[in-house]
Structure formats: C-alpha cells, structure tokens
Amino acid sequence: xxxxxxxxxxxxxxxxxxxxxxxxxxxxxxxxxxxxxxxxxxxxxxxxxxxxxxxxxxxxxxxxxxxxxxxxxxxxxxxxxxxxxxxxxxxxxxxxxxxxxxxxxxxxxxxx
Amino acid sequence: xxxxxxxxxxxxxxxxxxxxxxxxxxxxxxxxxxxxxxxxxxxxxxxxxxxxxxxxxxxxxxxxxxxxxxxxxxxxxxxxxxxxxxxxxxxxxxxxxxxxxxxxxxxxxxxxxx
Lengths: 112, 114
Prior knowledge:
Chain A is mostly beta strands. Chain A has no helices and twelve strands.
C-alpha cells in the first residue's frame, strides 16, 4: 500500500539556520505530494504541494521538489524563524479517493 | 470566517458513554473526512464522504458511525467510549476527489476518556 516515511525525531535549530526535513514515499501510480504544518493547538494547514514529477512546491520560504527517481519530497527552508516552530507532516494523496497517507510528522523547534 | 469548524473543541467524558462531534464546512466542498491523531501525533484517516456518500471506511470499530446530513456537514457519533478512543479528531474537506485538491482541516476535537 501507499506510505510516507519521515526522518525520525524532533528537529531543534537556531534562528536563521537552514532546515531540511526528509520525506520518502511508496506509492502505486502517481500520487500528489503535500507538506502540511500544525501549529500548537491548531489543525493542519497546507504548506505546499506538488502534483507531478519535477514539480517544485513553495510557500513562505519553504520549498520541496517532487523527485520520482528517488521517491522523495524533502522540505527545505534557507533561514528559519521562531515562528516556524511547529509539527510538519509529509503526505501523499491517492488517485480516486483523495485519501491522505501521512508521515509521522517532525516537531521543529527554532531557538532565538 | 471559519472554513471548517468542529464542535466541541474539548470533550471529556466517562468510559461507556456515547458522544458526538459535529463538523461543518462553508467552502462549498463536496468531500469531507474524519482523521484521528494519536498521542504521538500520528494521523490516520477514518472515513470520507463524497456528496453524502461513504467513500472510505477504514478499519474503524463499529462503535464509530459517521453521518452526513448534507454536503456541508459530517458528524461523528461514537458509542460505548473506550480509553483507547482518547485522541484528537480532525475533520477536513476538499473540492472533489482529485488528488491535487488539498484538504482543509478544522482545529480538532480533543477527546479525553476518564
């Protein structure tokens, strides 16, 4: 079945540091790929998406590129802020029912 | 304007009780979902409805019954609550079933079973 794997453990870094969160997927066919962000006490918000190979999604300084050859969709940001502290989820969407399969999420803590 | 709203935000109740969580969306979407987020933040889909018709029904106990009176509402009723039902439940909606359509989430209902 379809699945998403995110790197283990929380990520703690200093303000203005470079952020990378790894995401790889297993899927039949050609899923769409998403990054969602969850701020404390809130629901998930769409951060960015990519719907086909080599597409790059970007928003609020975050970027991720749909890599079919490595089945990856890694999230990057060049200079993080304290306000980026949140949990980040990688997800894929199946064709036909738009079922979202989520990775386990990564807690990101940005220290001033 | 709240796009996807869930009530209540917090629900604390005793084991064995029956409870409902309501969800409404004002985005004009025709597909709605329920997800469960456990204590480790893992999210798993439970149900989805498209135009009031059940599309996805994961291996969820029969004690959970979704009801969609119209396209803008998808409520979740839970019978005989158990300790393991403690979690945060999220409602979401999307425009159709195409995989490129992002899902919009509510703020969640935190269910605590005593």
